């Protein structure tokens, strides 16, 4: 019996993952029937690129797979403990709800030529743990405005070419995330965040989890 469920938030930087995550935590806390145990792991615990003591480092394929396996193993152990305690408990008292940022789709995009067998195995484990995926996107026409609105000081001295390259990279990565989501076995919905209606999007996610 599964005592666990959760959502994976995917999307490029500035797509709204952190804002939706905050809204999800707020909605979940307001629901008396929801799990009292909640695990929230930001992208710092699962992404390919990491700021390590001031230096940006990129995990290779095997390193990233190992990292993802460790996170999934943690969730599996929590579910196994709940099952060991027995079935006579409500979702609120014994269930676990998790939220992960940048996980399986980010791996697929970072290593597009990778053999699919291992990542499919990870996705199958996530599926068995009640995971569903939400891909947050921004319309191509709004990408530049979204990026500059988040960190305006960063863009003040950027040239037109630098800005254009950043926009193109955003759109290209987002397109690849969409493509990889269609290859994943995990149930996935795509939410456009142009309107920045974070609570509305969070409600859509909770509806998906029902």
TrEMBL record:
Protein name, UniProt field: Thymidylate kinase
Lineage: Bacteria, Bacillati, Bacillota, Bacilli, Bacillales
């Amino acid at each position: 019996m599964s005592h666990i469920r959760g959502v994976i938030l995917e999307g490029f930087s500035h797509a709204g993952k952190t804002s939706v995550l905050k809204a999800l935590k707020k909605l979940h806390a307001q629901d008396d029937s929801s799990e009292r145990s909640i695990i929230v792991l930001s992208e710092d615990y699962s992404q390919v690129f990491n700021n390590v003591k001031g230096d940006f480092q990129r995990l290779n394929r095997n390193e990233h797979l190992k990292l993802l396996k460790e996170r999934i193993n943690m969730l599996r152990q929590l579910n196994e403990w709940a099952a060991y305690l027995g079935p006579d408990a409500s979702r609120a008292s014994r269930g676990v709800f998790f939220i992960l940022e940048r996980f399986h789709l980010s791996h697929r995009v970072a290593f597009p030529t990778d053999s699919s067998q291992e990542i499919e195995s990870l996705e199958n484990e996530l599926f068995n743990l009640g995971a569903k995926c939400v891909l947050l996107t921004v319309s191509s026409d709004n990408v530049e405005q979204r990026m500059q609105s988040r960190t305006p000081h960063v863009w003040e001295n950027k040239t037109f070419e630098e800005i254009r390259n950043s926009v193109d990279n955003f759109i290209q990565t987002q397109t690849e995330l969409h493509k990889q989501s269609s290859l994943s076995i995990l149930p996935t919905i795509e939410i456009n965040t142009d309107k920045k209606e974070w609570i509305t999007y969070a409600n859509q996610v909770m509806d998906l989890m029902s």
